[in-house]
Write a structure and sequence with these properties.
Order of helices and strands: HHHEHHHHHHEHEEEHEHEHEH
Radius of gyration: 18 Å
Number of strands: 8
Structural class: alpha/beta
Low-confidence stretches: 1-15, 21-35, 38-44
């Protein structure tokens, strides 16, 4: 489903023209991240705003685990390594916002100690690309056809996300994730601490960097967890956060998302303005 460069550029120009007109018709207080709480208090829902923002977005960033795929990748690897229960508890704490993400990440890896060989074995026996959430591949294709750039922004591991990205036609350079580090003999060293997604607020930092680097005016973040919601919480971050509960419903995310969905078909319908 590769789009030609001409087709993609044309789609972006058309989408931009329509969205400028739409934004011009919206109340000014809908254009600022700083008014999200005010809107939530005054309307009880910002679903309409999120849907309009989705249609007008230059780029859409997706979380991967429990969003693009139906599992938590790190938990799948932990199960394969025989430490699944202990690691799953730490993942739950991190996703619910009850434990700083970088602490949870370091603690999980300390329990797992994955080698390069064991990681390769797990990926071969349990291909993560076979775990795609229903409708996500179609929705990504629709976004790209509409001229929107799609990024994967995840606290998971690049080595496990690359085959998922390939399955939904997202290039490797549009993945922002953590990286496992191995010695030359394949023994585990740790993870790259320079990756922004290795720490709290990392997804917000990635979104802000993408806006600055590419000149994006409007970016939407879609995900299931508290770390995804953080992408909206800084100036220059995501313009809207859409919570996804098709795999797991996290009450904090459901309560604070601009819009909360449980099926990618809802997002496809909103994109088409149906």
């Amino acid at each position: 489903h590769q789009l030609s460069m001409w087709g993609l550029s044309t789609a972006r120009v058309l989408a931009s023209s329509v969205c400028r007109a739409s934004l011009a018709r919206r109340p000014l207080n809908l254009l600022s991240n700083s008014t999200l709480l005010v809107r939530r208090m005054s309307t009880g829902s910002t679903g309409d705003y999120a849907q309009t923002t989705l249609r007008c977005a230059d780029a859409v960033c997706f979380d991967v685990d429990s969003t693009v795929i139906t599992k938590e990748g790190i938990d799948e690897l932990a199960d394969f390594l025989g430490v699944g229960d202990a690691v799953a508890k730490l993942t739950f704490k991190a996703m619910e916002g009850g434990m700083p993400f970088h602490e949870a990440l370091a603690a999980r890896l300390a329990l797992m100690q994955p080698t390069r060989t064991r990681l390769d074995d797990m990926l071969a026996q349990h291909p993560p690309a076979e775990l795609l959430s229903p409708g996500v591949a179609n929705f990504v294709a629709e976004l790209q056809a509409a001229g929107k750039r799609v990024f994967l922004v995840s606290g998971g591991f690049r080595q496990m996300i690359e085959p998922i990205a390939m399955a939904i036609n997202v290039p490797k350079e549009d993945i922002f994730a953590n990286s496992l580090v191995f010695e030359g003999n394949g023994n585990f060293v740790g993870h790259d601490p320079e990756e922004p997604t290795s720490r709290k607020g990392g997804k917000a930092k990635v979104v802000a960097q993408l806006k600055a680097a590419h000149g994006f005016k409007t970016v939407v973040m879609i995900g299931d967890g508290a770390t995804d919601m953080e992408a909206r919480e800084i100036d220059g971050g995501a313009d809207a956060f859409i919570g996804y509960g098709g795999v797991v419903v996290r009450e904090l995310v459901k309560a604070r998302a601009d819009w909360f969905v449980t099926d990618f078909a809802e997002l496809s319908a909103a994109l088409a303005n149906k």
